[in-house]
Amino acid sequence: MTFELTATDKDTNARAGIISTDHGDIHTPIFMPVGTVGSVKGVFHRDLKEEVQAEIILGNTYHLYLRPGTAILEQAGGLHKFSAWDRPILTDSGGFQVFSLAENRKLKAEGCEFRSHIDGSKHFFTPENVMDIQRSIGADIIMAFDECPPGTAEYGYAEKSLKLTQQWLERCVKRFDETEGKYGYTQALFPIVQGCVYRDLRLKAAEHVASLNREGNAIGGLAVGEPTEQMYEMVELVNTVLPTDKPRYLMGVGTPVNILESIARGVDMFDCVMPTRNGRNGMLFTSEGIINIRNQKWANDFSPIDPNGSCYTDHCYSKAYLRHLFISGEMLGPQIASMHNLGFYLWLVREARVKITEGTFGSWKNAMVLKLAQRL
RNA sequence: GGGGGGAUACCAAAGUGGCCAACUGGGGCAGACUGUAAAUCUGCUGUCGUACGACUUCGGAGGUUCGAAUCCUCCUCCCCCCA
Predict the structure, then answer these.
(1) Nearest nucleotide over every DNA/RNA strand to the A146 CA, judged by C1'
(2) Which nucleotide is at minimal CA–C1' distance from A257?
C-alpha cells in the first residue's frame, strides 16, 4: 500500500491524495461504507460500485470471526472472493466491540474475553490472534486491536486504557511483521491513536503511533459520547503529530458536517454506519439538509429524493413514494435510503476533493456545513 | 315470529361499582441513531395546558348510588341460532 499526496488546501489542513492497494486506488478524502459482516446492508455490490462509487468498504473482525468464521473465509480465498467484492477492504479489529459489547466482555492485559452476542459462547481476542484473523479475512488494510473507552471516561481510566492499547499495539505490530498475507496480495496495518479527550494522552499516543512508521494511521475513540467540539479539538491536535505523508483515518465518524470539519483538520479517511443505519431508519442526508422521510409533510411531495444527487435512485423515486415505502414497511424503502445516503456521502467527499484541488475548499466547506445541518 | 349475544377512543380488544381518561395490539404522529447485537429503539396518541391540573367521554335517553364504562328501565343498531 502506498500513499501519494496530490494537493493541499491553502486555508485549511485539508489534503487530497491517492492510496494504492493491490485491489485498486482510493482517492482521498474518502468515505468507506461499513459492511460489518461482509455486507453493506441493503445495497448490492453493483450499486455500491456504479451508483455510490464506493472505492473501499469495511468489514469487522469480531463479526466475521463469529460468522462465517476464519475456516470458511480461508476456504473461500478471503473476504474479497467470498463476498465477490474486488475493490479494497478495510477490517476493523474488534476494538470497537470491546466498547459496544462492554457488557459481554472482560478486559485483561493479555487480551479481551468476549461472550458471543449470538450464542453466549466464550472467545478470547488477543493482539496476536486478531492479527491472524485479519490475515485470514484478507483485508487490504487491517486495524490494530485497541480498547475504545467511552467519551466520558475519566482521566485515570483513559490513561490506563491508553497504556493497554499501546502495549497491544506493540504486540500487533510484532505479530503482523512476523506473518504475511495468505492470498498473494499485501496488507497494511494501521495503528490507532487513543487517549480520550485528554490532550496530553492524545499527544503521547500520537507520538507513539507516529514512531511506528506504518503505512497509515488512525484516530479512534472519538464520537463515542464526548462533545463534538472536543472531538474536533482532538483531531486537530493529533494531526499536528501524525505524519503528513501517511493517510489519516478517523474511525467511525460521522455526520456529513463532522466529515467536512475533519477533512479541514487533515483527515483523509472516514467510515460510519450513519448513512446506512439512519437510512434504514428513515433519515436522509441530502444536498439541501436532513430529511426524516417518515414525516407527514412528505406525503404529497412528489419531487425527487435529491435533485442534486448522483445516484439514479435520487431522481427515479419521489419523496412521497419513498415515504410510502417506509410507512408500509417495504424493504425497498431502507434499500433506497441506504443507497441514497451512501451516494450522498461519497459525492460529498468527491466534491471536497475537487475543491481541495481547486483551492476553494475552505469557503465551500463553510457554506456546506450551514446547509447540511439543516432539518428539512 | 321465538331465543340468545353484543355496541368501549382511528381500528381491534380488555375492563363488569371507586385504584378508569380507561390494559394491550395495530394504526397514526414525532424523536433517537457516529470503527453496526439496530430493516432497531424511545415518546406521544379525548380536549385545553410546558406542567401541577381542569374539563368532556365508554350506542342514545332517563334512573339507582356519596360515586357508574360497569347496576336498573326504555329506545336505536348489529350478530348468531330456531321457525
Answers:
(1) B35
(2) B34
